[in-house]
Write a structure and sequence with these properties.
By secondary structure, the chain is an all-alpha fold. The protein is built from twelve helices and two strands; from the N terminus they run H-H-H-H-H-H-H-H-E-E-H-H-H-H.
Length: about 300
């Protein structure tokens, strides 16, 4: 998720676009898919609850609107606000004053990291962030993408690999300790089943994300692979459908797991690795086919962000 936010800033912040065109892009690419799948997700949840004879809380449809949709669609909520503010961010990068840009980026990262720590240390009750504020902590990632495109990063791959490795070890260690102490009855760094180490804006994950992004952007594929047309065509096809696959896959996942019985505990699954491979493959292929169908039906194309 952080890598995608960084990449979004890398790709869209540097392009000149009018306020009107930017609003239309945010509407077509984000708002319509967001509202469409928010409704589809809740309709599916209602039908699934009836099929499984489970209770369905009707007020949740409205309550979740203020909780970043309370689903995987929170990702689109973040992007919507960031896209709407592109006309405000773009002038920042028209200046060559690196110190001013660096100050803004560091400010937003510092605010996000401290806000996340504060949530686990003091803001134990209620939602520290919601639909209309959660995007603020992601601004640093978004701006960093354009920073890298404009100025680059003056660190060698060895240094970046070292930063990533140490950050990864710190994340894994803190994650283990969080889980260990949680099982001992302490929830100091645990809120609603999620530990601080798992947060996308924990200090170590921020370092992991920034270093990995730069390393990936510097990565060069072997010439033979880049000249292999079937590989390139396959990548382009999957890329064109990836947004739709993302929007559809949780519904497919729920149906496959809860209605078809493909779970880690299923008697047909000999072990966990087999389940992961089979489950992921079925969900990806099914979501891929559904997205391909939707893409070719004019009246449905808009729900996956295609005019």
């Amino acid at each position: 998720v952080p890598l995608f936010i960084i990449l979004s800033g890398y790709l869209v912040l540097g392009k000149e676009i009018s306020v009107k065109d930017n609003l239309l892009r945010a509407r077509d690419r984000i708002l319509i898919p967001l509202l469409s799948f928010y409704s589809i997700f809740h309709i599916y949840a209602y039908l699934a609850s009836k099929a499984r004879s489970e209770p369905f809380l009707y007020p949740d449809f409205f309550i979740n609107l203020t909780k970043n949709t309370h689903t995987y669609l929170y990702f689109l909520v973040i992007l919507l606000f960031l896209y709407l503010l592109i006309p405000l961010f773009q002038p920042l990068f028209k200046t060559e004053n690196k110190e001013k840009i660096k100050y803004v980026i560091v400010f937003f990262f510092t605010n996000a990291i401290l806000g996340t720590i504060a949530r686990y240390l003091t803001l134990r009750e209620g939602d520290a962030f919601h639909t209309f504020s959660f995007w603020i902590v992601w601004v640093g990632y978004f701006l960093f993408g354009q920073w890298y495109k404009k100025f680059g990063v003056n660190l060698s791959n060895k240094v970046l690999t070292f930063i990533f490795s140490i950050s990864y070890l710190v994340t894994a260690t803190i994650g283990y300790l969080n889980f260990y102490f949680y099982n001992k009855g302490s929830d100091l760094f645990y809120i609603n089943g999620q530990s601080y180490a798992e947060e996308y804006l924990s200090f170590s994950v921020v370092l992991m994300s920034l270093s990995l992004f730069v390393l990936l952007m510097r990565l060069k594929m072997p010439k033979k692979i880049m000249e292999f047309n079937p590989f390139i065509s396959g990548i382009k096809l999957i890329s064109s459908l990836s947004y739709g696959i993302y929007l559809i896959h949780p519904i497919v996942m729920d149906y496959i797991n809860k209605f078809q019985g493909i779970t880690a505990d299923s008697s047909s699954m000999p072990n966990l690795p087999t389940y992961i491979i089979v489950n992921a493959t079925i969900i990806f292929v099914t979501s891929f086919i559904l997205t391909l169908i939707i893409q070719r039906v004019p009246i449905l194309r808009k729900i996956i962000g295609i005019k």
